[in-house]
Write a structure and sequence with these properties.
Elements: H1 2-14, E1 45-46, E2 49-53, H2 68-77, E3 82-87, H3 89-92, H4 101-116, E4 120-125, H5 167-176, H6 185-201, E5 207-211, H7 227-242, E6 250-253, E7 281-283, E8 286-287, H8 300-324, E9 329-334, H9 343-357, E10 360-364, H10 382-387, E11 391-395, E12 398-404, E13 409-414, E14 423-426, E15 433-436, E16 444-448, E17 453-457, E18 464-470
Parallel strand pairs: 2-3, 2-10, 3-4, 4-5, 5-6, 6-7, 8-9, 9-10
Antiparallel strand pairs: 1-11, 11-14, 12-13, 13-18, 14-17, 15-18, 16-17
């Protein structure tokens, strides 16, 4: 939290001119209407559980440390049905207009490992602190040719998020977003790059969609000055470009990181999907409450502050998703060392929140050590046990309840027209006991012991269904 507070304060003083006043976030108009859902090709609601792969992909090669066996482990031991797979602009387009298709071939090979496990891949165009050329020793994402700092200085800071307000980094973002009026070509090149990536992966059955820009930061334009007039049309241009080569995959859009990551409202405006039929756009905020993501704690006074941010996030992010008419997915959460006070309690609380909201998530991250799911020796960390949590992978309708009490999982749903196939539930123990509110003889189930997946076919004449699974 200290870093976030310092960063917010620094932005308030360094980025807002004396004559400007911050525009208020657009009202969220929260209501109790159910969130829209991500659906598969059978019309079932997808609940995506998985990891971010990986922080190591921020390095020069743009590739994660994993091999095929690590993907098998994620699917079998954690029950992951998805992955947020990091890629970088600098590796895709090392020179303006020249794409490195050998790099994309390497990505495709790794995507195939997830395909073998029946997992969904969200390709995430990652960046932090703009790119490595913005501040030597920091950053990932943008190529050097797309980095214009005008010779301003930058010194990497501790905590790392403070590097965002170094002069060279702010200037690089300002040029990218064309706040300066000097480099409109940068956003154009970024959009064309995404079109190239989407064309490469449009027909890959493992690729569910594309996360367009990790944790947007607006340089000297923040909050209402950034999300509505700059970020929204930027997303719209990329969506329009992708739809020329890919009509089917889902497209994930994030609010700006500063503020919404901690639960503040977002001013992001509606993006239109030009594809025929229902839109396939997803609102993908992150959750990094202050004091947790920089290795803090979840106890004492800090726990009280973080719980307040839980309440804000749970109110404002679903309200924004409803306003935008999009399903919601928690694209990043975690970042707390296992040794930090309250780490297990924090993890349990955000898992409960996600279940309550009926949304999926991608944990940060699968890198060994720290807050990852394996330690430096490759053994599971306490987080692995917490994340290996029973959940419905696919629901044959609209979910109305997902609740786990530490032993039993209860899943409720409402039938929806156009849906086929069973509800699939991942359960980590052998030979689970299954009960249903459907009348006897109208429903059935099948247990796949190897994958630990329970398939439930509900009463076809029933409007609502509730299944409870116990060890």
């Amino acid at each position: 939290m200290r870093a976030r507070i310092i960063l917010t304060t620094a932005l308030a003083s360094a980025l807002v001119t004396p004559t400007a006043t911050a525009l208020p976030a657009r009202p969220a108009h929260a209501d109790e209407a159910p969130l829209r859902t991500i659906v598969d090709d059978r019309g079932r609601t997808l609940i995506l559980h998985g990891l971010n792969t990986a922080g190591s992909a921020k390095g020069p090669s743009g590739l994660p440390w994993i091999d095929r066996t690590d993907v098998v482990r994620e699917a079998r031991e954690l029950g992951s049905n998805s992955v947020r797979y990091l890629i970088q602009w600098k590796n895709i387009e090392p020179e303006p207009g020249r794409y490195d298709d050998e790099y994309l071939d390497d990505v495709a090979e790794r995507v195939s490992w997830y395909r073998e496990q029946g997992m969904h891949v969200i390709l995430d165009m990652h960046q932090d602190i703009y790119g490595p050329a913005a501040c030597e020793g920091s950053g990932n994402g943008a190529p050097a040719w797309a980095t214009h700092t005008d010779g301003l200085p930058c010194t990497p800071q501790t905590p790392w998020v403070l590097t965002y307000v170094q002069p060279a980094v702010i200037r690089a973002y300002d040029h990218f977003w064309n706040n300066t009026g000097d480099h409109p070509e940068l956003k154009q090149r970024y959009t064309a790059m995404w079109k190239h990536v989407a064309e490469r992966f449009a027909d890959d059955p493992a690729v569910l969609g594309y996360d367009l820009y990790n944790e947007p930061f607006g340089g000297t334009r923040q909050f209402g000055f950034f999300e509505g007039p700059i970020l929204t049309p930027f997303y719209q241009g990329i969506v329009d470009a992708i739809r020329k080569v890919d009509r089917d995959n889902w497209i994930f859009v994030e609010p700006q990181a500063l503020g919404p990551n901690e639960g503040a409202e977002t001013s992001l405006e509606a993006v239109r999907d030009p594809r025929p039929g229902a839109p396939r756009l997803v609102f993908a905020p992150h959750f990094y409450p202050g004091g947790v993501d920089i290795g803090g704690s979840y106890d004492g006074f800090t726990e009280l502050l973080v719980k307040a941010q839980f309440l804000l996030w749970k109110r404002n992010m679903p309200a924004a998703a409803r306003r935008l008419g999009m399903p919601m997915w928690l694209g990043e959460v975690g970042g707390m060392p296992a040794s930090a006070p309250g780490a297990a309690e924090f993890t349990g609380d955000w898992l409960d929140m996600a279940d309550e909201l009926g949304i999926g998530w991608a944990y940060w991250s699968n890198d060994p050590g720290g807050g990852g799911v394996i330690d430096g020796d490759g053994d599971p960390t306490p987080f692995a046990e917490l994340l290996a949590r029973p959940y419905p992978r696919a629901v044959a309708g609209t979910p109305t309840e997902i609740s786990y009490d530490g032993t039993s999982l209860t899943v409720g749903w409402r039938a929806r027209s156009g849906t086929s196939g069973p509800t699939e539930i991942w359960f980590p123990t052998d030979s689970p006991v299954v009960t249903s509110t459907d009348p006897k003889g109208t429903w059935k189930y099948r247990w796949d012991a190897e994958r630990r997946v329970l398939s439930v076919w509900a009463d076809p004449d029933g409007a609502t269904h509730t299944v409870t699974v116990k060890p």
